[in-house]
Specification:
The chain is mostly helical and 89 residues long. It is 87% helix and 0% strand. The N and C termini lie far apart (50 Å).
Protein backbone atom coordinates (compact mmCIF):
# COMPACT_ATOMS: atom_id res chain seq x y z
CA UNK A 1 0.00 0.00 0.00
CA UNK A 2 1.34 3.45 -0.84
CA UNK A 3 1.21 6.62 1.25
CA UNK A 4 -1.67 8.12 -0.71
CA UNK A 5 -3.82 5.03 -0.16
CA UNK A 6 -2.99 5.04 3.56
CA UNK A 7 -3.87 8.74 3.82
CA UNK A 8 -7.18 8.11 2.06
CA UNK A 9 -8.02 5.37 4.56
CA UNK A 10 -7.08 7.65 7.46
CA UNK A 11 -9.31 10.39 6.02
CA UNK A 12 -12.20 7.94 5.77
CA UNK A 13 -11.69 6.93 9.42
CA UNK A 14 -11.56 10.60 10.43
CA UNK A 15 -14.89 11.16 8.68
CA UNK A 16 -16.43 8.24 10.59
CA UNK A 17 -15.05 9.60 13.87
CA UNK A 18 -16.71 12.97 13.23
CA UNK A 19 -20.03 11.26 12.46
CA UNK A 20 -19.76 9.31 15.72
CA UNK A 21 -18.90 12.48 17.67
CA UNK A 22 -22.00 14.16 16.20
CA UNK A 23 -24.13 11.19 17.27
CA UNK A 24 -22.58 11.36 20.75
CA UNK A 25 -23.32 15.10 20.89
CA UNK A 26 -26.98 14.52 20.06
CA UNK A 27 -27.27 11.93 22.82
CA UNK A 28 -25.39 14.14 25.29
CA UNK A 29 -27.78 17.02 24.56
CA UNK A 30 -30.73 14.72 25.16
CA UNK A 31 -29.20 13.46 28.43
CA UNK A 32 -28.43 17.04 29.50
CA UNK A 33 -32.13 17.89 29.35
CA UNK A 34 -32.74 15.19 31.97
CA UNK A 35 -29.99 16.37 34.32
CA UNK A 36 -30.88 18.82 37.04
CA UNK A 37 -27.56 20.03 38.43
CA UNK A 38 -23.95 20.79 37.43
CA UNK A 39 -22.87 17.70 39.38
CA UNK A 40 -25.15 15.53 37.26
CA UNK A 41 -23.68 17.08 34.12
CA UNK A 42 -20.12 16.49 35.30
CA UNK A 43 -20.96 12.95 36.47
CA UNK A 44 -17.42 12.27 37.71
CA UNK A 45 -18.16 8.61 38.50
CA UNK A 46 -19.55 8.06 35.01
CA UNK A 47 -16.51 9.77 33.47
CA UNK A 48 -14.14 7.50 35.40
CA UNK A 49 -16.18 4.47 34.36
CA UNK A 50 -15.82 5.54 30.71
CA UNK A 51 -12.07 6.10 31.13
CA UNK A 52 -11.64 2.67 32.70
CA UNK A 53 -13.56 1.07 29.83
CA UNK A 54 -11.61 3.03 27.20
CA UNK A 55 -8.26 2.02 28.73
CA UNK A 56 -9.36 -1.62 28.73
CA UNK A 57 -10.52 -1.49 25.11
CA UNK A 58 -7.37 0.35 24.01
CA UNK A 59 -5.12 -2.24 25.61
CA UNK A 60 -7.00 -5.04 23.89
CA UNK A 61 -6.84 -3.24 20.54
CA UNK A 62 -3.08 -2.77 20.79
CA UNK A 63 -2.96 0.98 21.34
CA UNK A 64 -1.61 2.89 24.31
CA UNK A 65 -4.17 3.05 27.13
CA UNK A 66 -2.60 6.34 28.22
CA UNK A 67 -3.06 7.86 24.77
CA UNK A 68 -6.67 6.67 24.62
CA UNK A 69 -7.29 8.09 28.09
CA UNK A 70 -5.87 11.51 27.17
CA UNK A 71 -8.01 11.63 24.02
CA UNK A 72 -11.12 10.61 25.92
CA UNK A 73 -10.54 13.05 28.78
CA UNK A 74 -10.48 15.81 26.15
CA UNK A 75 -13.66 14.48 24.53
CA UNK A 76 -15.42 14.22 27.89
CA UNK A 77 -14.34 17.73 28.93
CA UNK A 78 -15.69 19.17 25.68
CA UNK A 79 -19.02 17.36 26.06
CA UNK A 80 -19.38 18.47 29.69
CA UNK A 81 -18.70 22.06 28.60
CA UNK A 82 -21.29 21.71 25.81
CA UNK A 83 -23.89 20.38 28.23
CA UNK A 84 -23.20 23.20 30.71
CA UNK A 85 -23.53 25.83 27.96
CA UNK A 86 -26.80 24.35 26.84
CA UNK A 87 -28.05 24.28 30.44
CA UNK A 88 -27.00 27.92 30.88
CA UNK A 89 -24.38 27.08 33.51
Amino acid sequence: MNLEAINQQISAIDARIVVLLAQRARLAREAARLKQSPAQIEARDRQEQIIHQVRYMAEHQGISPGMAERIYRTILAEFVAMEKREAGL
